[in-house]
Amino acid sequence: MGLPEHSLTTTLSQSIVDQLSDTVGNELAVEFYPEKPANYRLNHANGALLVNYGKSNYPKHNDTYAVVRPRTMMLTITIVSRGLYDRYGAVPLVDWVLAMLSGFTPTHCDQPLSPVRDYFIQHQSGLWYYGVDFETEAVLVQTLPINEF
């Protein structure tokens, strides 16, 4: 069994990037969270929305034959802005992200995105960083052959 061609998590994250990109047009950059955050550079004049998968939880479940479990997934939108309260400031962008994603159902998910929390991350080199965490639910289904008893 080799690596799969497709990743549920990557496809889900891409659908969130697409939803935000379709809504903001060219007013903000919308990207995946950088693989090397220390080297990230904001190139857009107004700001950026960075989409990142954070974690999943799998509640205890009594599987009787195959493993089929709910997968509660956490994703973070990191807001990077040059201002705090102006039109493209981090604080109004928190509200905007909440409005644009709350209730949106990403690809391969059974539940719409639901906000969990928003928070200040840091102010560094003239940029404001805020986070907005969302959760959604998908289903994990066993792909290995089922062992017969």
Task: Give a structural overview.
With 149 residues, this protein is of the alpha+beta class. It has one domain (8-141): STM4215-like, CATH 3.30.2000. The chain contains 2 helices and 5 strands; from the N terminus they run αβββαββ. The chain has helices at residues 8-24, 90-101; strands spanning 29-32, 47-57, 68-81, 114-124, 127-141. It has a 5-stranded mixed β-sheet, covered by helices on one side. The longest helix has 17 residues, at 8-24. The relative contact order is 0.20. The mean pLDDT is 90. This is Phage protein.
What is the H level of CATH, i.e. the homologous superfamily?
Phage tail protein-like
CATH topology: STM4215-like
| Terminal Cα span | 23 Å
Instruction: Work out the helix count.
Output: 2
CATH class: Alpha Beta
Total domain count: 1
Described by strand count, sense and barrel closure, the largest sheet is:
5 strands, mixed
**Overall shape:** elongated
Q: Spans with pLDDT under 50 lasting ≥5 residues?
A: none
